[in-house]
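Quick start: load a record and inspect it. Here is pyruvate kinase:
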Amino acid sequence: MEQKSQGVVVQVGKTAKAKGIRIKPQKGLNFPESTFRMPILTDKDREDLLVAEIEADILGFSFVRGSKDIVAIQNTLAEQVVSEAALAIPLVIKIETVEAVNHLPELIVAAASKNPLAIMIARGDLAAEAGFLRLSELQEEILWICEAAHIPVIWSTQVLENMVKNGVPTRAEMSDATMAGQAECVMLNKGDFVEEGIALLDAILVQSQQNRSKKTAKLRALKIAKKAWRKTKK
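Running the structure step on this input writes:
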C-alpha cells in the first residue's frame, strides 16, 4: 500500500476468483486490524454540514473510532453553527469497526453530553472488519452497552434482504428480523418489495414484543404449556 496526497494506492494480491472481482458502485474496501489516523471530517464534509445544519433533522457519521472523533464533530458544529437548534442536532453514530466497539462507552459519553444520540449497528462493515464469527458477539455487546446507557439502537444491514428484493423471505431472515426487536429501530434496504417487507417486519416485531422487551424476556405464560396442562387435567 502506497500513500499519496490524494489517498492511497492498493495492490490486491489475492481474490476469491482467479480473474479478480469488479468492485460495484457504492462499495468500498475494508482493512481489518488496521488503524488509520485520518480526520473524521473532510473539507467536503465541512461544506456539507453548513447545509445539513439547516435542512437535516439528524446527522449520521460513518467510521467513528472514539471520543476524539465526536469532539471534532461537535467542535465543527460549534464553529459553523447557525442556530441553537443546529448545535444540539441529533447524531447517529455508525459502529463499523472493532475499535469503535472497544471505545463505545466513552464515545457515548462524549456524544450524548451535548447531542441526542442513537447508535447504528452497521453489520456489513462490522462483519468485514471483525470477521463473521465475532459479529453476533459484538452486536450483543453493543446492545447491552446501549441499553445500560439508555441510548437507542438502529439494527441495519440485510434485514429481510431477500424479501425486499425478491418478494419472498428466507427462514434465516425471519429469525434475524425477530432478533432485530432488541433494537429501537430496524432499517430495511431498498428494493421492489420494500412495502411488503415493512408490513412483514411490523408483524414480526409485534409478535416478538409479546415475548421480550429489548433483551429481557417477559416470561409470559406459554400457549403450548396451557394446552398440555388442559390435556393432563382431562
